[in-house]
Amino acid sequence: MLPRHQIPNAVTIGRILLIPPIVWLLVQEHYWIAVVLLAIAGLSDALDGWLVRRYGWHTRLGAWLDPAADKLLMLGIYVAVTLSGLLPLWLLFLVVGRDVWLTVGSALYRAFVGPLAIRPLFISKVNTFLQITLVLVAIVKVGLLDLDPIWVQLLAIVVAFTTLASGLAYTAQWGLYAWRHLHGPGDAAASNRRTP
């Protein structure tokens, strides 16, 4: 019997299991079914978050698993739609590059500075929303409706901007945290005492 506090983690694992079929369906151009599974994945993300907030079912595994599931889903979708020719290759490199940069940066921060509490920035939330919107618009344009290609092109440019902006914002924030940690009030006071 699954412990109740592990139910959100089970929902998250279910979302991870949806990633391979979603990617396969997108590559095979079965867009309708892919969109349905994407909707289920999105609802599962909302559900596990609601369960954690409503019942306080916070776990260490969940704190790591939920964002990992989101990143894997986003990466899988972007690889699939890029391989299908719906999005440009440079945008995939930019989206993946930002995530790699932040992952390496947070690891280095923890290794050389200390614990890092990652708080989602507003620009990051906007970026995630626009990344998802771009994928959906690209899929709808090819598989469901005859949209003008300009909408995909414009959204791709906007997503490129928000991806860069969010990466730079996190870099600046973590850099400021590191500076304050390494040059805290104690260091400033010691420096003042040494000044003639």
Description:
With 196 residues, the protein is an all-alpha fold. It has two domains: 1-61; 85-183, no CATH class. Helices cover 82% and strands 0% of the residues. Helix 1 runs antiparallel to helix 2, helix 1 (7-27) runs parallel beside helix 3 and helix 4 packs parallel to helix 6. The longest helix is centred in the C-terminal third of the chain and has 34 residues, at 149-182. It is globular and about 55 Å long. The model is unreliable at 187-196 (pLDDT under 50).
Lay out the secondary structure.
Elements (H helix, E strand, L loop, with lengths): L6 H21 L3 H25 L4 H24 L5 H24 L9 H23 L4 H34 L2 H10 L2
Helix pairs in contact: 1-2, 1-3, 3-4, 3-5, 4-6, 5-6
